[in-house]
Amino acid sequence: GKTHHRTFVVKSSPYTRLCSTKNILTVNGKFPGPTLKVHRGDKLIINFYNKAEYNITLHWHGVRQLRNPWSDGAEYINQCPIRPGNNFTYNIQFTTEEGTIWWHAHSGWARATLHGLIIVYPKLGTAYPFPKPYAELPIILGEWWKKNVMDIPGNANKTGGEPILSDAYTINGQPGDLYPCSKQETFRIKVKQGKTYLLRIVSAVMDENLFFSIAKHKLTLVGTDGFYTKPFQTNYIMITPGQSMDVLLETNQPPNHQYYMAARAYVSAFGAGFDRTTTTGIIQYQNTHNHNSSSSPLIPELPLYNATRASAEFTRRLRSLVTKEYPIEVPPKVDTHLFFTVSINLVNCTGKPCRGPFGKRFSASMNNISFVYPSIDILGAYYYGINGVFGRNFPENPPKMYDYTGKNLPENLLTPEFGTRALVLEYNASVELILQGTNVLASDNHPVHLHGYGFYVVGWGFGNFDPKKDPLGYNLVDPPRETTVGIPDNGWVAIRFRADNPGVWLLHCHLERHQSWGMSTVIVVKDGATPETKILPPPDDVPKC
Ligand code: C2O
Ligand code: CU
User: Fold this and answer.
1) CATH code at position 35
2) In this structure, are 176 and 307 located in the same domain?
3) How far is the CA of 171 from the centre of ligand 1 (A)?
4) Which of 8, 104, 331, 397 is most exposed by smallest CB count within 10 Å?
């Protein structure tokens, strides 16, 4: 493979959206940030300079970072933050994933504007497992706040209140023509009739799952999170924060119309408020006498906000491609069974201000532990054997007597413990992890992301996981491989992976408000016995906290 060098300078730049101008964090002055293009097998070296007034780290979401947790970028997990005026070099190797993934800041809410695409093309000399598309179209779904996004978590972290809702969703950084002052800049693309385009879709959205569709056009899904899928046709996709999808679009419709693409929220639970607006972009056909160019674009049909069935029908169709070139490696036998509950909680306020309901504050937890970020990075503490930074006693199983429906819970189970604990796995363990959503306070669909791994989603369902019945329905033949999986509302997901990437890896909900409340934990995978199965040595420029 080739080695690419890029320079990323994080700085504030003025951007105007929704009738007002503010300074936002950008990479090289761009929003959304630059697209990185590599082939599988390549290396990428990013020289990162922090010229902003905040601490920043960058994460390469969906890159396996084999044996190299030093460049994974989760703040206080893999490294200390890069302080204003400092720099750091990220070393990224593309060993496993292929397709569309992305990068984003991993510091507070900075990822709202600090994000961009990573396109991993097939290894040089090899081809896509589908006919070569005529062209590719990047589609980054995002969210825009009129306020400074760096001030938003303050409300959630410090007061336990609900974070402020966004003012718009965006397509490639633009809200689109349904929002005020946004018509001129609506994202537009011109396509040729009779071609196949590859849409490279990423959800950089902070707090909501989205439905996305294009008027009159079918979408063919061919990949998720950097892994190819068995192609299937659909009218819409459901994409969670953190996920990416490769989608083929055939331009086979009458060229004398314009067609909207649109996205809006999918929320399973109506309890919490959510941004109910719709973002749009426009597809136009080239070189046609556009008689109707003044008429408005055709509108796509999007499932309703609470269309859990539409979401489930889409998700149920995801399957790994499975060919000789793209085999799967689902551990057939499991030696390490893990079961984590994923919950929103209410806890007593200690001190003011306190902005949650009933005089309490929101928090969030896994197995009843609400994650507290340490003051030096866990990877450094683990590697150098520094005690007192994190505990190795994350519970492998939920607290006893746990009632997933949230009914009849004793007070001590309603209230999580705060702590910085990691789960330690042996090298090469065959792991099954059940993620069980609970309704302790409210139900929600949690998109859970694991760093350092592409896991197989072997099963999922609604209600409580049944350890006798549910494993009988597992798909061990062609389960989809993902790095972010949505736990359905009040339901469960079963994932499997082999712990063959030593290091320190964050596992967290990719809804930013839940992460701000503590819905995270850390998985430490020990070194193997041979030199090729150990963590690489740290780089020279590791920052200090
Ligand atoms: Cu997309 Cu921990 O992140
Ligand atoms: Cu969540």
Assistant:
1) 2.60.40.420
2) yes
3) 20
4) 397
Q: How many domains does the chain have?
A: 3
In the reported structure, the alpha carbon of residue 326 is separated from the centroid of ligand 2 by a whole-number distance in angstroms of 31
| CA of 205 relative to ligand 1 center, distance in Å | 12
Ligand 1 binding pocket (C-beta < 6 A) is: 59, 61, 74, 104, 106, 242, 449, 451, 506, 508, 510
DSSP-derived secondary structure letter, 110: G
162 & 249 share domain: yes
- Whether residues 398 and 270 fall in one domain: no
- CA–CA separation, 183 and 165 (whole Å): 22
- Domain of residue 75 covers 1-127
**What are the tokens at 118?**
């990573």
pLDDT, tens digit, 9 for 90 and up, residues 11-58 = 999 999 999 999 999 999 999 999 999 999 999 999 999 999 999 999
For ligand 2, a single-atom ion, the residues with CB < 5 A are 446, 509, 511, 514
Same domain (yes/no): 527, 381: yes
How high is the pLDDT of residue 408? 63
Pairing of β 360-366 and β 336-348: antiparallel
537: buried, middle or exposed (CB in 10 Å: 19+, 13-18, 0-12)? Answer: exposed
Confidence of residue 94 (pLDDT cuts 50, 70, 90): very high
For ligand 1, atom 3, name the residue with the nearest CA.
Answer: 61
Q: How confident is the model at residue 347 (pLDDT cuts 50, 70, 90)?
A: confident
Taking the CA of residue 451 as reference, the ligand 1 atom at the shortest distance is 2
